[in-house]
Amino acid sequence: MQIYVNDQELDAELTGEQTLEEVYHAVSDWIAGNKRYILGLRVDGADASLSALPAVPAATVGRVDFYVGDELDMVLTTVSELDHYVDQVGVTLFERQELSAQDIRNLEDGLRWIRQILNSLSGLVKLDLAQMNVLAPGVRGAESIDRVVDRLEKRAARFAEENGREAIEDFLGDLRSFKFFVMKLFLQLRTMNARLDELADHLSQFERRIPEIVREIVSINEGFNAGKDFTALETLDRITGELNEYVASLYALDFHLRKSHGESIQNIAVGNVSFQSAAAEITNMLRDLSNALEENDIVAAGDILEYELAQKLGDFQPYLAEIRQFVLAREA
Question: DSSP assignment of 87-150, as one string?
Fold first, then answer.
């Protein structure tokens, strides 16, 4: 059997492993010593699931490819899988008028898996779920993601008694908030490995880009009004992705500053309004925009774009200037 790790053949001999499961654990133990983790697996050119490995004799396999990465790579892969699962649940429930008994069991199992993933991430990247806030439907301000997941678990348990479209809509409302949290978490984690100077450059780029982003937002609404929905949606998708990445970079910058200097940008204020509150408002609008588009409500999306998001982005620019000066002072 040939064993490859990240497309490089492993110069090592098997020591009596009989099944692919035993080979998997041997490689996993070896790379764990270097703080690396298995992210993917292919057997003779085909993707393989872990559950199938015990039944495959090692002698019948010609080549096994292991794809490994560091702790952050592993966490990003896990969060990406979580994001994909949430999408699958959302699409399935959006089309249902009621849930079968099997649907309810699957949903409860999925939420237990989500809870396990979040608990694991808490330990790996030192996340305090009780302090990680998300904007949720029907709630003034923000609440912890822990409470949102707790509510999802309770809503799923109640489906056995209350199983109509209204109950599904309530569940989907919290699921959208959780989805937005997962997206934000992925972007934040992806930027965690960036150097402080790289994040500072991203901050300056965001500051310079705001006037142009505001003009593009106005053009999106004009496109909707002119019946050019496809072009407008393409631009909107690009702009929202860009904004989400910029906001994630700001939170990553805050992480680096707290880690290296013990100081945070969260309380930097403009006109008695903190950066934390201003950033939360923009995040809320991006979520509302996503919900409007999911419901195909172009009018609501246009209003959010032109009358809310464009204005808030203009108001946000002074915060970026203050943060830039804050960072420059710490670097000096």
Answer: HHHHHHHHT-SS--HHHHHHHHHHHHHHHHHHHHHHHHHT--TTT-EEE-TT-SSEEEHHHHHH
Q: What angle do CA 118, 175, 109 make, to 5 degrees?
A: 55
Query: What is the token pair recorded at 103?
Result: 């649907």
Euclidean distance between CA atoms 63 and 45, whole angstroms: 8
Length reported for the chain: 332
Of 258, 275, 323, 247, the C-alpha closest to 126 is 258
- With a CB cutoff of 8 Å and minimum separation 6, the contacts of 288 are 304
Residue 314 contacts residue 214 (beta carbons within 8 Å): yes
φ, ψ for residue 60, nearest 5 deg: -90, 0
CA-to-CA dists, residue 130 to 46, 96, 133, 134, 178, angstroms: 41, 32, 8, 11, 14
Question: What are the tokens at 104?
Answer: 């309810």
Question: Phi, psi at residue 12, to the nearest 5°?
Answer: -155, 155
Q: Which of 219, 295, 210 is nearest to 250 (CA)?
A: 210
What is the reported pTM?
A: 0.54
Amino acid, single-letter form, for residue 296: N
Q: Alpha-carbon torsion 268, 238, 91, 302, what sign?
A: positive
Per residue in 73-122, pLDDT tens?
A: 778 888 888 989 999 999 899 888 999 999 999 999 999 999 988 887 77
pLDDT 10s digits, 267-309: 889 988 888 888 888 888 887 887 777 677 778 888 888 788 8
